[in-house]
Amino acid sequence: MAKKRVSRRELARQRRQAARRRQRILTALIVAGVVLILAAVLIWPQMRPVGEIVVVTPEPRSFADGNAMGDPNAPVTIAEKY
Question: Could you report the per-residue pLDDT of 41-56, keeping only the tens digit for each?
Answer without folding.
Answer: 999 888 888 788 889 8
